[in-house]
Protein 1
Amino acid sequence: RVEVLEEKFTEAFEDIHFEQSDLGGEEGYVGYSFREETTKDVGAGQKQLAKAFKREWKLFAELPLYPQASVFVRADENRMDVMKVIITGPEESPYAFGMFVFDVLLPSGYPDHP
């Protein structure tokens, strides 16, 4: 029974486990922790970041995806340095059944300077 639940969970969420979407929308990054920093031009850094993502894209598919604990990532389709991450707390931990949302802004030198 647990295996069936895990299989159905994976089927339901595997397509949205990691996606790119327009996080900024028409109004900018409303409610985003690093909103002020997102107004700065990143220019050439986006090309370098795009190359890094192409190399590491398959790593996103390996993020945990289980009913007990999962990681979901949304990368902005216009700025790959802007992401939103949701992590669900693992069972039998103080974080169990919690959902934790993180705004991520990669530094301008990433991936050369993490």
Protein 2
Amino acid sequence: RKMAQPTFQSYLPYTRDWILRLAILSILIYVQLLFSRFTRERGWIHDRTWHYIFQLEQYAIVSRLVLYTACKYLWRKIVVETSSTTFLTASDSSKKDVAIKSSLISFPPESFDDVWRSLFFIYLACSTCGIISIKLFFHGGEEASIIASILLVCFLSSVLLIAFVAPANLFFYLADCLFNGKVPRTPRSKLNRNRAIAKISCAMVAIMTIAAVIEARQLPQVEKVDVYLSKLPSRMDGLKIVQFTDIHVGPTVGTTFVKQLVEMARDLDPDLLVITGDLVDGSKEDHYKAIDPIVQLKPKFGIYFVTGNHEFINGYVDDWIEHLTSLGITPLRNSRVDIDGGFDLVGVEDWTAGRMGHEAPDLKKALAGRDPNKETILLAHQPKAISDAVEMDIGLQISGHVHGGQIFPFHFFAYLGNPFFAGHYRQVYGSRTQIYVSRGNRFWGPPMRLFAPPELTVITLRSTLRNR
């Protein structure tokens, strides 16, 4: 039996339905963003209780509106439209009950189909509820939570699955509209096409997820970089700076990794240790013990810290600044410090600070009264600070934030949004300013990295005042 040939007009009701859903979703997200702005303007976000409620509200909105819609879409494409009983009888009104029943889950499972449907349903439930569950139940502790890791892996792998399934289905949808029914097609051929898309997508995502988890669990690669600076005195030649960045201590990163990172840094024998933001994802009460091993390092010129966006987003930046200061780590918040008379080390707040009710990054304030003949090294979490660095004749900027994209294929979006993506860039915008952007020591959120391995950077300063 041949299937009725689709036309553009036959797709209009289906298209209008999805446009309406997206419009409602967009309106609700916009209302949520207005509420977020309202709470910030009134300073409620600085109160611990209000901030916790605010975060739960954000996670609930995302889980209910975005993730639920996405997982419902995956259930339809992976389960409903690949079931022969469902798909081949759905167009027959006399067999509508059979079609509906075949897409449901039977308990206890009666067949292999029931087993994999049950597992897929649990997987989607973890993807939908994982973020808010972590916030409620798995946000604290010295060590990484296995449950939190599993929930976040489910979440990110479901995003990858959509990235494969949606474009494939969109392609065939547009092809049907373009050819306007000129290509003969039967219900069985469409069912086979749906199954092929589902199987290939699931197989690719499974392989990518396993590879990403394995890559993320590896210790950082040591990246050694020589940076030549024109104003650096010859007596500072060979000074080694080790960079900690984007550790993201929280539900999926704990004390064990921090200790391993400290041991790796100790073997590098740094003269100076800099922490360029996103150190933690959580409160001081939950994670302060995981940070403490850092002070076991005793570099000659000390340990310095600048804020990242996650310190502000999580709402505990002042608590963490107080704790780090008590440990002997020096925060640079739009300020600078002289390093043995050889160069100025400058630190600015993250770009998120101003939007979260704190002092915005202010490089001019940090450099006020400096000696223009003295070399300057800037610590800034986000590479976008480079424009100010070039304007103020900074010799070197050290940044993180981008994670090298962290997960393929999202590298492309991170690359488009960050002209300075990863690695060492010289003569930025035709100036003498250089920037080094680290891929980060660990990962953010899901314990997954793909084609963006973590790194531990050691920068050796070289003076151009002596022969190379």
Protein 3
Amino acid sequence: EINSGALEEKLSACSVSREGPPAPQPPCTQAGSEPNAKPPVDEDVRIQVRLPDGSALQFTLPASLPLKEVKQRVKNERPGDKTLQAFELQTTHPRHMFTPEELKKSLKENGLTPSATLFVSQGK
């Protein structure tokens, strides 16, 4: 049961006064959250990798991880797949093939946060 008086009191504490100078207000917080809570040091990235056979692999990885780690995880997931012996990773929107230098950069530096879909392209 919701106590409407308590709810109105809480809402009025979070509202902005439009008349005169603003009075000091207690900080508005969500239930169960701490006012001084720090954001996570490293955000997670959801990566979906579409394979040539139409199947997909999904990973949730730290944003600081280098893109080459995604490539290695794809190989580890399908160790006997000969089509994955030499491949490249690419995006389609915008169309971009990742270079060896970009594979060394983090997922965040490559603009793949908070989520991305990568496609496996047959290598040379």
Protein 4
Amino acid sequence: QFKTSLPPSKMKKQEERTGHEIYQSLGSPKRIMAPMVEGSDLPYRLLSKRYNTDLVYTPMLYSRLFVTSKKYREKSFQTVPEERPLVVQFAGTEPEDLLNAALMVQDHCDAVDINLGCPQRCARSGGYGAFLLDYPEKIFEIVRTLSTGLSVPLFCKIRILPDLEQTLQFAKGLEENGCKLLVVHGRTRDQKGDNCGPADWDIIKKIKDLLTIPVVANGGLVEFEDVQKCLDYTGCDGVMSACSMLDNPCYFAGIAPNKYDIVVEYLQICQEHPIKTRFIRQHVFGILKDEFAAEPEQRAQYCRISHCLTESINFIQQFKEYMENKTKLEESTKTEPEITTAETEVSSTKRAEDTKTTETEEVEVVG
């Protein structure tokens, strides 16, 4: 299934094509799903492609493990023709490992991407991702090795450096050494979690103005309107989203779907393309986080049956009906007329006056 050799005649094709020629051959994608560990699985990629996503990335794959472990390859990399164009992302520190891993997938994707942006603890301990940014010359060696050794183009995804000039010089170095498309996350590696902060679109714009290859902006997309705002502000060729797509796989379509229906659609795709149950649960919990927060017993019940997709689909459909009935009941309760304190006081006063009048009339009649 995976090949590790490449005819020399195919090697030069990617070097001769410009970044924009390659970008156009992919359909000039503007709306791109980010690589997400345990997030951009095959069923979720297929789901997002139904709703205006132009280009998808695999989760980050560990290059050395991908080369040495058949079990890891089979579990971590799944693809089907209908999801193309597809970018496969690898993490690693050694040019040989990254090249050998990329050679194994180049016949099953449209580009290979090097992860230079992961800020997590695992990346720190392994020296890859955003922590490889401390060694630009080593990165340039990796880029040269892959860009000349593959039949598909090489992309890179980076985070910005604390210093603007260093960031610009580094981005230019990536282009000069063979990177054909650059994704820029407008945050440093220290900006994560609670310390996330806003994405710096100004630096992304400066990088776009400097380079001649396509540049994709990543970070700061919350509302659907942010897509066009970012494109207009930065001048980038496309935008990439992660968190917003985890909340709503229809994000790039600009619609807020019925959450239960979109979860069922995802689960049905999972029936066709099975993946680990914990990956599925993460997406279900992500899309229905508010609903499950309000109904912890329902969440616990889903956990008990989540290993079975048929039962999961039936449960979500029943959960939808349950929540809709609950909403109708709450709304009907709200629409019933409420007697205010003032109305009660007026009513009491009126009854007292009526009683007094009646007593007066009775006295007069008797008299």
